[in-house]
Each structure stands twice: as structure tokens, then as C-alpha cells.
Amino acid sequence: MTAETKNQVTTVYQVTGMTCGHCEGAVSSEISGIEGVTSVEATAATGRVTVVSQTPLDEEAVRAAVDEAGYELAGQA
Q1: CA 72 to CA 54: how far, in whole Å?
Q2: What angle do CA 9, 13, 17 make, to 5 degrees?
Q3: Whose CA is closest to 43, among 74, 68, 18?
Q4: Residue 45 neighbours by CB under 8 Å, 6+ apart
Q5: 18-64 pLDDT per residue, tens
Q6: How many helices (H) and strands (E) does the chain have?
Q7: Burial 56-69 (b: 16+ CB within 10 A, else e)
Q8: What is the CB-side half-sphere exposure of residue 8 using CA atoms within 13 A?
């Protein structure tokens, strides 16, 4: 899911393998390193990661960041 408001883009991704707060922090930290990302909220209970960015993100960049954190990007939620 992607929504655009006031020069910001919100995209929700589904990530598999997150089980705790540490997982949420690892995924959030890696995705936050992508240029243009202004906020990240990861929720282990649902596996959803909400990303707010200045422009639409390249899904492969998000996939690489999630992989680096040790999890798997299933795609957009």
C-alpha cells in the first residue's frame, strides 16, 4: 500500500521473521539508512513496516535493507 500526502509518501511493507522489539529495531535501523526516508515504524506482531519517505522508494533498496537486518521482505502489504 502506498499513499502520498504533503510531499511525503507512506508505504507499508510485509516483512517475515520479526518476533520481538529487537527485530523491529534492526529492521527500522536499516531502512532508516535509505536516502529520503523520514520515519520507519516496524511492528513484529503483524510483520508490517510503515515507511514514510520524501519520494517513492525503490523496492529493491528496501529489500536489501531488510535482508541486511536478517529478515525477508515479502512485498508491499
Answers
A1: 24
A2: 150
A3: 18
A4: none
A5: 999 999 999 999 999 999 999 999 999 999 999 999 999 999 999 99
A6: 2, 5
A7: ebeeeebbebbeeb
A8: 10
